[in-house]
Amino acid sequence: MKPIVDSSPDVYTELDRRADAGLDVALLWSRGTGSLIVAVRDTSTGERFELKVAGEDALEVFNHPFAHAARRGTGWCVESQR
User: Fold this and answer.
1) What is the Cα–Cα distance from 4 to 36, expressed in whole angstroms?
2) pLDDT value for 15
3) pTM over the 0.70 mark
4) Which residues of 69-79 are buried (b: 16+ CB within 10 A; e: fewer)?
5) What is the dihedral angle through the alpha carbons of 17, 66, 5, 2, rounded to the nearest 10 degrees?
6) Core-most of 9, 13, 61, 82, by most CB within 10 Å?
7) 30-61 pLDDT tens trace
8) Whole-number average pLDDT of the chain
9) In the chain, where the domains are located
10) What is the pLDDT of residue 73?
């Protein structure tokens, strides 16, 4: 399975991941900064978005990323080809 985010130069540890109906959602923790990210990718279109989250909100955002993205005004972007 292809990583959702490029972990360089930072190193991310995957804390949780789920995939269903072409959507891949991962909760990632940065070893270097201690930050948390919920990353969402549509595997059929290549569109994706990421949400930085506080530790106390991590599971809520992981479980409901679209609701939190809508509140923040975060939209899909197309993943660049490597």
Assistant:
1) 14
2) 95
3) yes
4) beeeeeeeeeb
5) 50
6) 61
7) 988 899 999 999 999 989 999 999 999 999 99
8) 85
9) 12-71
10) 85
Residue 17 CB contacts under 8 Å (≥ 6 apart), including other chains:
24, 25, 26, 27
Distance CA 28, CA 44 (A): 22
User: In terms of residues, how long is the chain?
Assistant: 82
Amino acid found at 77: C
- What residue type is assigned to position 55 of the chain? G
| pLDDT class of 81 with cuts at 50, 70, 90 | very low
- Tokens, residue 16: 């949780």
